[in-house]
Amino acid sequence: MDDDQLSRVFAALADPTRRDMVARLAVGDATVGELADPYDVSVQAVSKHIKVLADAGLVSQSKDAQRRPCHLEAEVFDLMTKWIERYREQAQERYGRLDSLLAEMRGDERRTDHRNRQQGAAS
Questions:
Q1: Residues 72/25, Cβ–Cβ less than 8 Å
Q2: What average pLDDT does this structure show over 23-51?
């Protein structure tokens, strides 16, 4: 997935109505009319949302006689997940190194405090 398509995917999913449509299509294919039912908008407005999702590669439409059911293209989510996972792993590694450094610093402080207390008691 190139960066331009990834940008289109994230932009398409930024809209809550489109995210809801994607969630509904995850359950099963639906026509534009069926997708429009729960919203107080026109079928034309829903068609525009479907076009944005299709341009991002998230949804495709097929012809089934007079119906044009929308289908969720789940492979795009696999590509998004891989992209997100790469950065999550990098962040996790950085946090791991920071945790180690902080633990090492706390250990040095404890040893220094312990030595200072011992020296104070010996005086």
A1: yes
A2: 93
